[in-house]
Design goal:
Blueprint (H helix, E strand, L loop, with lengths): L1 H4 L10 E3 L2 E3 L4 H6 L2 E4 L11 H5 L12 H14 L17 H13 L5 E5 L7 H16 L3 E5 L3 H7 L2 E6 L2 E7 L5 H9 L19 E10 L3 E9 L2 E6 L6 H9 L6 E6 L2 E3 L4 H7 L1 E4 L3 H5 L6 H5 L1 H6 L9 H14 L16 H14 L4 E5 L7 H16 L3 E5 L3 H7 L2 E6 L2 E4 L7 H10 L5
Helix pairs in contact: 5-6, 15-16
Length: 455
């Protein structure tokens, strides 16, 4: 739907009306001219450019010469007009900003072009709690100024909190709609998935210390981001890593798989010292990695679902003469599509044409298909609906039931406390606590933010 409103599918059926007049959204430029701005999960900013340059991109003052001071002045004036003056340093490089600040730059870029309708596609998927609150306040201000907002989100609590009308789509069809006040979390969840979502209980032997030790890190250090981290991953368990953005969680994952080289510390796999020069070496040793950013670091967006699903298997496999039958690859891809319930069930389709949730399933399935002993997953369910989230949790649980180990990094407190067998909390690159898995969400947040002790 968002892509139709953005002018990405000119051959759509039905009709679109703006201010009571029927329009045809044939191109992205045409949609923008009609006053529709769509902001996707993956930002369309130029990270090497400043805030002012991004806000004015494509509408720079002057015909022949670039005038930086004039550009900053005009950007500042336009931001003041939309009540976003002072939100950013105009000369700040966008790539250095937090995800929340980059999100607001995207919104500012749309509003200075006089957008009548602002479509926000999963805008909070990558934001911290404080950043989500700031975005909510900004959305209220935008609405009060007369701009219509379409808020697309799988965080049902946020849908109920910030919207006035709700439309629920399932498999491309409207299955429910009405005032937000007529829904609660249960009814929204059932409408979205088509059934009551069952939460998988943690096994009674979760976190059993007698599980075979697979991966051990001792005093692992990576510059200033990670310092002296020690952890053990055992067969048949899921270890959760909690921490605020910037606590060193993702850096820890990269150190464990060789995507970033440690400056100190040691790694052992099944009791033997190892040194992973790169993720390929880690994969061949039995450690697979699913990165946080599926579009820029995870998926090969130019390839099909099949290309992506077999990529890690190919990297790990020791093929005779380096050759493999195309029919074998297609068979493995089809089996993965069926096993992991990827929809639509067409492995030949380009992976970018799938929904965010199905792209995430392809990414996780790619790691599982490689049959690792240890799977490290950064934000396994970011941007997915409750049904897909339950499916991904089932995939991870099935993996540990086979005697594998999983390390999960997540911003979702419920995910950490219901999925994981053990937890560690990072703060400023160090492990500050190993709380029990039945810790409350509020206690876990306190540990992450202020390091409060938990009994």
């Amino acid at each position: 739907m968002a892509r139709i409103l953005a002018g990405g599918y000119p051959d759509y059926g039905g009709q679109v009306e703006i201010d009571g007049s029927r329009v045809h959204l044939a191109t992205p430029r045409g949609a923008r001219q009609q006053g529709i701005a769509v902001i996707y999960q993956e930002f369309s900013l130029v990270p090497q450019m400043s805030v002012a340059e991004n806000v004015m991109l494509g509408d720079e003052p002057g015909r022949f010469l670039h005038n930086p001071s004039q550009l900053r002045e005009r950007a500042g004036r336009l931001l003041e007009e939309i009540a976003m003056g002072g939100e950013f340093r105009l000369d700040a490089i966008v790539g250095s900003l937090s995800a929340g600040d980059q999100q607001r730059v995207e919104i500012a870029k749309a509003l200075v072009r006089r957008a009548k309708v602002l479509v926000l596609d999963e805008p909070t998927a990558r934001l911290t709690g404080a950043e989500r609150e700031r975005l909510s306040m900004l959305m209220y201000r935008i609405a009060e100024r007369g701009t219509g907002l379409i808020f697309i989100s799988h965080f049902l609590e946020e849908v109920i909190e910030v919207t006035t009308q709700v439309t629920v789509l399932r498999d491309g069809t409207v299955v429910a709609k009405g005032p937000t006040s007529s829904f609660d979390l249960d009814s929204l969840s059932i409408a979205l998935v088509g059934r009551q979502v069952a939460h998988e209980a943690r096994p009674s032997n979760a976190g059993a210390p007698e599980g075979t030790e697979l991966l051990r890190a001792t005093d692992l250090t990576g510059g200033r981001q990670v310092r002296d981290v020690s952890l053990v991953l055992r067969a048949g368990e899921i270890l959760g890593v909690a921490g605020l953005v910037g606590s060193g969680r993702s850096t820890l994952a990269r150190l464990l798989v060789g995507a970033q080289q440690p400056t100190a510390g040691n790694l052992e796999m099944r009791g033997k010292p190892v040194r992973f020069r790169n993720p390929r070496r880690a994969l061949r040793t039995g450690v697979a990695f699913v990165p946080e950013d599926r579009r820029t670091e995870g998926l090969v967006t130019s390839g099909s679902a099949a290309d992506n699903l077999v990529l890690m298997w190919l990297a790990k496999a020791r093929l005779r003469f380096g050759l493999v039958k195309p029919s074998d690859l297609q068979r493995r891809a089809r089996e993965a599509v069926d096993e992991f319930n990827v929809r639509p069930a067409d492995a030949r389709r380009r992976v970018v044409t799938f929904s965010g949730g199905n792209q995430q399933k392809v990414l996780i399935a790619r790691g599982v298909v490689a049959q690792p002993d240890v799977l490290i997953v950064d934000q396994p369910t970011a941007g997915t609906d409750v049904g897909t989230k339950a499916e991904i949790h089932h995939i991870l649980r099935s993996l540990v039931a086979e005697g594998k180990a999983v390390l999960v990094i997540s911003d979702d407190m419920d995910e950490l406390t219901t999925l994981c067998d053990r937890l560690i909390v990072l703060q400023r690159g160090k492990v500050i606590a190993e709380p029990p898995p039945d810790i409350s969400n509020q206690e876990l947040i306190e540990l992450m933010t202020v390091g409060a002790s938990v009994a």
